[in-house]
Write a structure and sequence with these properties.
The protein is mainly beta. It has two helices and eight strands. The protein has a single domain, classed as Porin (Beta Barrel), CATH 2.40.160. The longest helix has 14 residues.
């Protein structure tokens, strides 16, 4: 519970000083497709990644001209198969990105994420992780205040999931997001 309070306080501190934020917050409803690769330092054979689906509720707000802060609650599933069969790990991922509005409709972003497993973590693995993420967003206006979004992200886990000495377990994710933007200040 303390971590969620910390995240909420951090977002408030980032967004509160900017009066334009309150009038210009965008809400995104997105479907998520993730292709996750597992890196296990002790595995005899590499795990085979599989496509997994999820969804996200995302918020975007301008902080200074051409720069936006973006965060979301993303229900993320990572699927792969190894020698023991098919494995699925479901988590809630909370990214925090700073996006730069490159040209009309195109933003590039860089930031980090916190990930908390919703399903029970396999034996010898932590439930929490963090990492770095980067990506792009293509915003295609549809009607005033509404747009169609296409996003792509690459996330690299920086923390080690393994609790076993000498073993390193990390995920690298290639994620596609598609959905709609509702702009309240437009």
């Amino acid at each position: 519970m303390r971590k969620s309070n910390f995240i909420a306080a951090l977002l408030f501190c980032l967004l509160a000083p900017f009066e334009s934020v309150r009038a210009d917050i965008d809400v995104h409803f997105l479907g998520v497709g993730t292709y996750a690769t597992l890196q296990d330092s002790t595995a005899a054979t590499a795990a085979t990644p599989k496509l997994a689906l999820g969804y996200a509720l995302e918020f975007s707000a301008p902080i200074v001209p051409r720069y936006y802060v973006v965060t979301s609650a993303t229900l993320l599933t990572r699927k792969y198969s190894d020698s023991s069969g098919d494995i699925s790990r479901q988590s809630i991922q909370i990214p925090l990105l700073i996006e730069y509005h490159l040209v009309r409709g195109l933003k590039l972003g860089l930031g980090g994420y916190y990930d908390l497993a919703l399903s029970s973590a396999p034996s010898g693995q932590r439930a929490e992780s963090y990492g770095a993420t980067s990506g792009f967003e293509l915003d295609l206006p549809w009607i005033p205040g509404v747009g169609f979004l296409i996003q792509g992200r690459y996330s690299m886990q920086l923390s080690n999931l393994s609790t076993v000495d000498g073993q390193t377990i990390k995920f690298n994710d290639l994620t596609g997001l598609v959905g709609f933007r509702l702009g309240f200040g437009r």
